[in-house]
Amino acid sequence: MTTTIAMAGKGGTGKTSLASLIIRYLLKHNAAPILAVDADANANLGWSLGLTVDKTIGSVLADFNDVKMSIPPGMTKEAYLNLKFNGAVVESKSVDLITMGRGEGAGCYCFPNNVLKEFIDKLAVNYRFLVMDNEAGLEHLSRRTTDNVDELIIVSNHSVKGVRTIGNILDLVKELNLNVKRQSIVINQAPGGVDPMIVEGLNNLGVKADAVVPMDNLIADYDLEQKPLTELPDSSPAVRAVDGLMEKLLAGRLGGAGR
Ligand SMILES: Nc1ncnc2c1ncn2[C@@H]1O[C@H](COP(=O)(O)OP(=O)(O)OP(=O)(O)O)[C@@H](O)[C@H]1O
Ligand SMILES: [Mg+2]
To answer: Which protein residue's CA is at the shortest distance from atom 7 of ligand 1?
Structure first.
């Protein structure tokens, strides 16, 4: 069974960084194979994982609709699309990555999107974990990719506005009828402890912070140096906070640290 972990949250709150640290945790605990899905149009999960992305699903879809694809005789459109989608999977030792890329342009994408959904569902069964980095809206979770989420990680910064967005996301999950087994609230880039105003805002939503990830200069340094976040040391405060959350969520389902 594949465990699906999906990120949600307002722009710039740290979804991609935390997705990378979740993958770091899984790697450390020998939970491979892992499929990372970058569902943000402005893709950058590959960078954070140190993987080079040449082709995105978006470009395959665009080619398909531009009739740039000449389908070999005897091959169905569906088989050909699957072949092309396969070509957009970046493989590495323990993590494979599929990058959605920019959204579709004009035209009808129902057919290729349905093929894509099935492709990802079929692909995912080969992995122990699927970690999906998303853009702020969650619509595509139901539209383009999987709608079954075991762990939804809702990321907010340490601000009252951010907490309000958590409320919107919680509403969206209900509206979209997503099958979310559990949702966790993460306050990222916290300056120290959590301000009582934030705690009150969360209380009003009937939730609490499941993890508080501190401001961590190492993340900014790695960003500047373009080093993968999966290589952050165990001593990084952000790594420690994410590891703590993962221990709680997976509650001993994985073995001890392998590296
Ligand atoms: N705990 C942290 N400490 C310090 N810097 C952080 C932390 N988390 C994230 N950042 C920085 O904040 C910025 C935004 O992070 P990130 O790209 O992960 O957010 P995002 O939610 O994925 O953004 P987007 O919505 O644009 O995809 C990045 O420059 C990242 O390096
Ligand atoms: Mg991002």
So the answer is: 189
CA-based nearest residue to 14, from 170, 189, 164: 189
- Alpha carbon nearest to ligand 1 atom 10, residue: 14
Which pTM was predicted? 0.93
What confidence score (pLDDT) does residue 259 get?
46
* Full 3-state SS string of 185-201: EEEEEECCCCCHHHHHH
Phi, psi for residue 152 in degrees, rounded to 5: -100, 120
184 lines ligand 1 (CB under 6 A): no
Q: Burial code of 217-238, b = ≥16 C-beta within 10 A, e = fewer?
A: ebbeebeeeeebbbebeeebeb
Spacing, Cα 17 to ligand 1 middle (Å) = 6
> What structural domains and CATH numbers belong to the chain?
3-250 (3.40.50.300)
The minimum-distance atom of ligand 1 relative to the CA of 17 is: 18
Q: 97-115, pLDDT tens digit by residue?
A: 999 887 666 666 677 777 8
